[in-house]
Structures are given as C-alpha cells and as structure tokens.
Specification:
Structural class: alpha+beta
Helix content: 25-40%
Number of helices: 6
Strand content: 5-15%
CATH topology of the largest domain: Arc Repressor Mutant, subunit A
Order of helices and strands: HHEHHEEHEEH
CATH superfamily of the largest domain: Winged helix-like DNA-binding domain superfamily/Winged helix DNA-binding domain
Strand order of the largest sheet: 1-3-2
CATH class of the largest domain: Mainly Alpha
Shape: elongated
Largest sheet: 3 strands, antiparallel
Radius of gyration: 20 Å
Length: 189
C-alpha cells in the first residue's frame, strides 16, 4: 500500500455502518475481517499470510466457522484468497470503500435503499432458510411432499433438506439452493 495513511475513524465507521450491514456479516465474519484488516491494511500491508488454525485460536473460535468466514468474505469481495498452502492462506485485503458489493447503486436493479441509507429488505437469496422451522417448512411445502430428485411422495418423518450447491462449494441456505428430498436420495447424493 503506497504511503497512504488510513483514517481509522472513517475506516471503522465504514465497516460498522456500511460494510457489515449491507453484506449481512455475522459476528464471526466481522471478527475475522476486523482482525485481518488490522494486521494488513492498517499497518500498511496489502497482503497477509495466516493459518486458519492460529487465527481461530487467536479469536477464540473453532476452525470450521473461521474457515467458513474466510470463504464467505472472499465470496463477497471483502478479501481475495490468493493462495492456499500448508503454510496458510495468502489474502489480499480490501478496504470497505473498495468492495464492489457496497458501492452506491449496487444493491438491486434499481439501487434502492431504505430510509436513511439502510440496506433493502431481506430477499430470498439472503434469507437463511435453515434458521427456523417455518422457513424449513416453506421449502418442504414448495416441493408439495415429493422428493426433488426421485419425485416420489415422502412422508414428513423421512424428508429432509439438501443443498443443491453444497456448502463446501459456497452454497448458501437460500430458498433457491435448498430442496426437499427423501433420506435415501440425500444419502446417495
């Protein structure tokens, strides 16, 4: 980062007031982004190498959620994973103002925002459909009691939810990525 001093107050305000709400960051994703930002751009480095295990230990979190947070931050454009190796991840950090998803006019086709610049209401893509029983039931109701894969009728006690795009490939818990299926098809898949 070429001789540019960051305004810490402005950076923190952008992170808390704009970046985190618009991207819908979880507490763990906020912690990971804050830590990586502090140890890279704030000290004048564009890139940072770290091990997920040591980052998890430092933040007092489990390895799985930290790994998921890094993947999601990469997916959202808050950082860019340049390399994964035995020595750790090499990432390029981005300032909140440089993240494409939060630039003005990027939220939806019309660029609409709520009152006082709030992000738009939750959509099917951003809602976590595994969170509540009612949301999970909405997925089962959409399939009308049939397995998505084999199309057989499935009793309520043997149907389950499956990710079309697996979580390991950054599949979300969205309405379009979850399907109702029978245990047999879910096990086979």
């Amino acid at each position: 980062m070429p001789n540019k001093t960051l305004n810490a107050k402005l950076l923190w305000m952008q992170f808390e007031d704009v970046l985190a709400p618009r991207l819908g960051l979880t507490v763990k994703e906020r912690a990971v982004y804050s830590y990586l930002l502090r140890h890279s751009l704030v000290v004048g480095k564009l890139r940072l190498q770290f091990a997920v295990m040591s980052l998890a230990r430092t933040l007092g979190l489990s390895i799985g959620p930290v790994r998921q947070a890094v993947r999601r931050l990469d997916e959202l454009g808050a950082l860019r994973v340049l390399e994964r190796s035995k020595t750790g991840h090499l990432v390029e950090m981005r300032l909140p103002e440089k993240i494409r998803a939060i630039r003005p006019g990027r939220n939806g086709a019309s660029g609409a925002t709520g009152a006082a610049g709030e992000p738009p209401a939750s959509t099917l893509e951003t809602t976590d459909f595994l969170k509540t029983w009612a949301l999970r039931k909405a997925i089962h109701d959409r399939e009308r009691g049939a397995c998505f894969y084999c199309l057989r009728r499935t009793p309520a006690n043997v149907h389950c939810l499956d990710h079309v795009v697996p979580r390991v490939r950054l599949g979300r818990n969205s309405y379009r990525n979850l399907v109702s299926c029978c245990l047999e098809c879910n096990t086979r898949k």
